[in-house]
Design brief:
By secondary structure, the chain is of the alpha/beta class. The chain has a single domain, classed as 2-Layer Sandwich (Nucleotidyltransferase, domain 5), CATH 3.30.420. 42% of the residues lie in helices and 27% in strands. It contains 4 helices and 5 strands; from the N terminus they run βββαβαβαα. Strands 3-2-1-4-5 form a 5-stranded mixed sheet, sandwiched between helices. α3 packs across α4. It is globular, with a radius of gyration of 13 Å.
Amino acid sequence: MKLMAIDYGEKRVGIASTDEAGQFALPRAVWPNDEALLDKILRFKEEEGIAKIVIGESRDFKGVANPILSAIAEFKTELEKRGAEVVFHPEVLTTVEARRLQGQTPMTDASAAALILKHYLESQNRS
């Protein structure tokens, strides 16, 4: 089953997906968070044969919701209204982790999405 992940930010949104076997998380794109975003994601989902979308559930170290989480929840609801299967996966500082691993690049947000997807896959393999 092929999955995709979203690292949702106010200005940019990182996109990652698994390989065909659903085993490896790969950074794919960084898109502006604008009025075309929802359609871009749904088109990508369709073209890539994505079965499920994983969105990073932005929280701090204490588990308290970050201010952006309400916008993320609204975006998740919009995707679900359009027929997408969407799940939250807890994420803390994935963009910081991506920067630490590779430095700041144009694909940092996509790498953060790949980390969210990697952690999601690991959690599914444990259960």
